Amino acid sequence: MNGIKDLLRALHGDEEHLAKEFVAVADRHRTEHEVHHVAVDLAAWSREHTRRIADTAQAYDLDLDPLDEPHVGLLSTIGRKTAEAVGRHPEPALLLLRDLRDLHLAASGNSLYWEMLAQAGQATKDEALLDVATRCHPQTLRQMRWTNTMIKTLSPQALASLR
Length: 163
Description:
The chain is mostly helical and about 160 residues long.
């Protein structure tokens, strides 16, 4: 069972990290309204995943804290003011592409963990593991599809403008 505990810890930490990164990207790109609003929604999914993982981990004698709601502080305010001042220039577009790439890679790693957790649930006939993976993994796949779609949509203009 040590492997399952390690997997739950890792997935919990990575979902927590992904939630924080979605919030940071939403703050950094506040002037990109679609990015801002969707990233906030996708962060909520990862926060919910951390809560579900924490609940599931209790059966394995793991005490994983659910992620607290994000706090808007000084850095968020500075990020928002900077985004508003800069507007839409090639540099912010490249920053957005880099942020979307990083989000996509993080979500991809989580997707692999969800797959591993589902396989562990099947192997051990643990319905709780299967349930949490079945509920959360599709949302992680959706996070990946969104980041991929945004990269495809934004890349041509952002990269061509650098010529």
